[in-house]
C-alpha cells in the first residue's frame, strides 16, 4: 500500500493539473482569444480522458484515499466545462449584451445543480439529461456563428435539457454501438482540432460539415439505446 501511494498521488496531481490548464483557458477567454482557449481546453480534455482509467487501474481510492478523486474531478470539470466556456460566451458577442450576463448566470446555477445530482449517470453509463458540456455548446456556436437570437434559444433550450427525461452518451463508457461511437469521436476530435487551427468561424466548409454530421450522430444515438431513452429511464429510475 505504502509503495503504491506515490502512484495514487501522482494520478490525483494529474487530475488537478486540469484545473491549471482550465485557468489558462479562462484567462484567454477573458481576453477574447477563443481559439487559443479551446486549444488549452483540448489539452485538459486529454487529461480528463486518461486520469479516470489510470485511477481505476491503480485503485487510487485505496492508495491515496485521503483525497476524494470524484470530488476533485467534479471541481476540475466544472471549471473546464462550465465556467470557462461561459466566460467565452459572455465575451464573444454570441448573445446580445443585455441578455449575456443573465443567461450565463442562469446556466451556471443550473449546471451547479446538475453536477450535484447523484442521478447524473444511469446504471449503463449514459448521462441523464444534457451533461453540462458547455465547452462543446459554445464551441459549436463560435464555429457556426448563428444569429444572436438563435444562440440565446440554443443556450436556454440546452439548459432545460439538463433536467429533461432524456439521455446523452458517454463516448467511451457506453457499450451500445461503442466501436462506431469511438470512431466518430476520433473524427469529431480531428475536425475540432482543425476548426481551432483555422480560428473557429473561419474553418472550412468540410470541417464544419464534419462537426455537424458527428454532432447529429451523438444527438441521435439515444434513440438506439436498448429499450429507448425514456422507457429505459423509467425502469432504471
Question: What do these coordinates show?
Answer:
The protein has ten helices and two strands, in the order H-H-H-H-H-E-H-H-E-H-H-H. By secondary structure, the chain is an all-alpha fold. It folds into two domains: 1-74; 93-237, no CATH class. A two-stranded antiparallel sheet has the order 1-2. The longest helix is centred in the first third of the chain and has 26 residues, at 5-30. The radius of gyration is 18 Å and the shape is globular. The chain starts with a helix and ends with a helix. Residues 231-237 have low confidence and may be disordered.
* Domain unit count: 2
Distance between the amino and carboxyl termini: 38 Å
Q: How many strands appear in the DSSP assignment? A: 2
Alpha plus pi helix count: 10
Tell me the layout of helices and strands.
Elements: H1 5-30, H2 34-57, H3 60-63, H4 69-92, H5 97-115, E1 127-128, H6 134-144, H7 148-161, E2 167-168, H8 178-197, H9 205-220, H10 229-236
Antiparallel strand pairs: 1-2
Amino acid at each position: 500500500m505504502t509503495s503504491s501511494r506515490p502512484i495514487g498521488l501522482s494520478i490525483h496531481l494529474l487530475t488537478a493539473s486540469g484545473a491549471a490548464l482550465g485557468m489558462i483557458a479562462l484567462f484567454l477567454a477573458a481576453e477574447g482569444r477563443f481559439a487559443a482557449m479551446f486549444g488549452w481546453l483540448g489539452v485538459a480534455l486529454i487529461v480528463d480522458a486518461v486520469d479516470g482509467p489510470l485511477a481505476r487501474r491503480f485503485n487510487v481510492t485505496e492508495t491515496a484515499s485521503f483525497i476524494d478523486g470524484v470530488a476533485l474531478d467534479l471541481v476540475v470539470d466544472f471549471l473546464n466545462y462550465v465556467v470557462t466556456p461561459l466566460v467565452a460566451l459572455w465575451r464573444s458577442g454570441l448573445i446580445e449584451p443585455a441578455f449575456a450576463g443573465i443567461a450565463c448566470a442562469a446556466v451556471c446555477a443550473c449546471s451547479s445543480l446538475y453536477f450535484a445530482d447523484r442521478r447524473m449517470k444511469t446504471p449503463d453509463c449514459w448521462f441523464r439529461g444534457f451533461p453540462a458540456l458547455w465547452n462543446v455548446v459554445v464551441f459549436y456556436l463560435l464555429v457556426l456563428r448563428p444569429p444572436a437570437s438563435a444562440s440565446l434559444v440554443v443556450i436556454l433550450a440546452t439548459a432545460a435539457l439538463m433536467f429533461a427525461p432524456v439521455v446523452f452518451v458517454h463516448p467511451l463508457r457506453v457499450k451500445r454501438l461503442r466501436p462506431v461511437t469511438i470512431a466518430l469521436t476520433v473524427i469529431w476530435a480531428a475536425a475540432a482540432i482543425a476548426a481551432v487551427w483555422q480560428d473557429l468561424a473561419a474553418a472550412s466548409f468540410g470541417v464544419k460539415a464534419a462537426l455537424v454530421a458527428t454532432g447529429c450522430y451523438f444527438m441521435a444515438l439515444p434513440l438506439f439505446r436498448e429499450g429507448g431513452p425514456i422507457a429505459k429511464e423509467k425502469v432504471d429510475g
